[in-house]
Every structure is written in C-alpha cells, then in structure tokens.
Design a protein that fits this description.
Radius of gyration: 16 Å
Strand content: under 5%
Helix content: over 70%
Number of domains: 1
Length: 92
Amino acid sequence: MTGLLQHAITLTLVLYLAGMVLGFVRLTRGPSAQDRILALDFLYVVAMLLMLVLAIRYDSDVYFEAAMLMVLFGFVSTMALAKFLLRGEVIE
C-alpha cells in the first residue's frame, strides 16, 4: 500500500469518527424522536462506511461481511422504530 493511500485512509477514518461523534450528540440531544431516529440511521451508515474503509486498510473480507450484517440490522431497526412512531405498534 502506498504512502498516499495510507494517509488518505487515516484521514477518512478520522473524519468518519468525527461524524460519528456529531451523530451521537444529535442522538442524545435531539429535540424530537424523529431526529433521534435519523441520527441512529446516520450512525449505522457511517459505521458501515468505517467498516468498509477498515476492510480496505487491512485487506480482509471479514469487514465486508460485518458491514453487510450491520446495514441489514440497521435498516430493519430503523423501519421498526419509524413504524412504532407512526402507528404506536410494530407488529399489527
């Protein structure tokens, strides 16, 4: 791996972590429940991107599989929370 790629990956990881911190602040201090769900959705997407960058950095397929599982569970949980806020129940 070239030096430029290593620096780009390190910068990307730092920026993703900064985004996650800001998303966590929105999650804890959001003015409404909808803002908190959107922040949670943002956090799992950024965590998935973080896993993909780590997969490139360490050249490992395990990170790709973990990112796929993370997105699957994140999507399902976001849909369940949105449905709960909309109707007051998850299962009809």
